[in-house]
Every structure is written in structure tokens, then in C-alpha cells.
Write a structure and sequence with these properties.
Structural class: alpha+beta
Strand content: over 45%
Number of strands: 14
Order of helices and strands: HEEEEEEEEHHEEEEEE
Shape: elongated
Oligomer: single chain
């Protein structure tokens, strides 16, 4: 009788453990096929100046063709301001090392930006000193850009587990001889003080299945095929 009771108590626990491992296994198997992952966004605004920094690991050259290319780790810094007639530059401490560069103006997006090739950030805040002109002598202001993520935002493995579970038919259709014939793009989004994930699976023919995922709850909010 004791044995039966013990087994009855253990079965739910064993089932939960098995589900966790299945989820981990599914996400781990897809991890190598992620060609783009934007994992963090930093933002700050003061007066007429706004700064944004996106951290991502992405294949270069960037092609949504279903194949995985060599990936680069990057922090893209962009400054938006009312006066675009001037040149701007930034300096900031990043993982204990000072970074600096002139920002280049993009007339289409109307921003001043530069891409730094850096490892993932260790801190939740990046303090950018902003300079007018190309000489980095006297900063006009300092913007303390904070990460938009909180402790409830889902990890990459969690998002891949959700993808594997909700799009099992699609994932299975692209598996041949234990190889995934496609690539996965995952981008952190931030709208109205809340995080979302854009998730896209692209096959070798360029067909994309895209999902909008709640960044904390993991609920799929929208789906599109193109």
C-alpha cells in the first residue's frame, strides 16, 4: 500500500520533470539554427535627445534565405535629436571598457548611429556621454539608458520551447535527417512599456512563418505567413 501511495505522489513530479527535459531538448536542438537574436534594448530621453541601443547576435551578411551564416555580436547605438545639421559622437563604459565613436547620420531614418562589435552587456544601464562635433572634449549631456527587460521577460530557450510546441508541424516538416532546413529570427520588441518577441521561421525557399509572442507570458498573439 505504501508503495502505491509513493508512486501516486511521484508520478506528477516525474511527469513534470520529463516535460521540462523535453522542452529543453526541443529548444536546444533549435538553438543552432537561430541566425538572429536581438536580446536587449536600452533607452533614454532627456529634452530633445533620445538614445537607443539594441544588442543582437546576427549573421553577416544578413539574408533571410533559410541558411545560417557566420554571426556577429553587435551593439547598435542610435541618437535622435531635433538638430540634424550637426555631427555627434558618444563615449560610454561597457563591461568595464571605454567605448567611443563618431555617429553617422542616416537621412532615411533621421538618426545618428554606429554599430559597435561587442559581447553581451553585463549591466542593466549604459551611460552615454553625448558630444557635438567630432572632437570628444566637452559632453553636452549624459543619457543613462536602461534595459527595457525585467526579470519576467522570457529567455531565448523559453521562446524556442514555445516555438517547438506551438509550431510542431512546421518544425517537423523542415527536419530532414536530423537537420533543420531553415533559419530562425528572434527579435525583442518594446511597445507601450511592455516586451514582446518577433519570431520568424524561414525555409530554404524564403517562405516565412512569423509570430508575435507575449514577452512575459509566452502567449502567441499573432501569426502571419509570407
Amino acid at each position: 500500500m505504501k508503495k502505491i501511495c509513493v508512486l501516486t505522489l511521484l508520478l506528477p513530479v516525474l511527469l513534470l520533470i520529463s516535460l521540462i527535459f523535453v522542452g529543453c531538448s526541443s529548444s536546444n536542438s533549435l538553438l543552432q539554427y537561430v541566425s538572429e537574436y536581438r536580446s536587449d534594448i536600452f533607452m533614454a530621453t532627456e529634452g530633445k535627445y533620445s538614445i537607443f541601443a539594441n544588442y543582437y547576435e546576427r549573421e553577416n551578411p544578413y539574408k533571410a534565405d533559410g541558411h545560417i551564416g557566420k554571426k556577429e555580436k553587435s551593439l547598435e547605438v542610435a541618437l535622435a535629436t531635433e538638430d540634424n545639421t550637426k555631427n555627434y559622437a558618444v563615449t560610454f563604459m561597457y563591461n568595464g571598457v571605454k567605448q567611443q565613436n563618431i555617429l553617422y547620420y542616416d537621412s532615411l531614418q533621421m538618426i545618428h548611429s554606429f554599430i559597435f562589435h561587442l559581447d553581451s552587456p553585463k549591466d542593466n544601464t549604459i551611460s552615454f556621454q553625448i558630444f557635438e562635433g567630432k572632437q570628444m572634449n566637452n559632453a553636452i549631456l549624459t543619457l543613462h539608458a536602461k534595459s527595457v527587460k525585467n526579470n519576467n521577460v522570457l529567455s531565448l530557450n523559453a521562446i524556442l520551447s514555445i516555438l517547438a510546441k506551438n509550431e510542431k508541424t512546421l518544425i517537423d516538416s523542415l527536419m530532414q535527417n536530423k537537420q533543420f532546413l531553415g533559419e530562425i529570427h528572434i527579435r525583442l520588441l518594446f511597445e507601450e512599456n511592455y516586451c514582446y518577441y518577433y519570431v520568424s521561421v524561414v525555409d530554404r525557399k524564403g517562405k516565412a512563418t512569423s509570430l508575435l509572442v507575449d514577452g512575459e507570458l509566452g502567449e502567441i498573439l499573432a501569426k502571419r505567413e509570407s
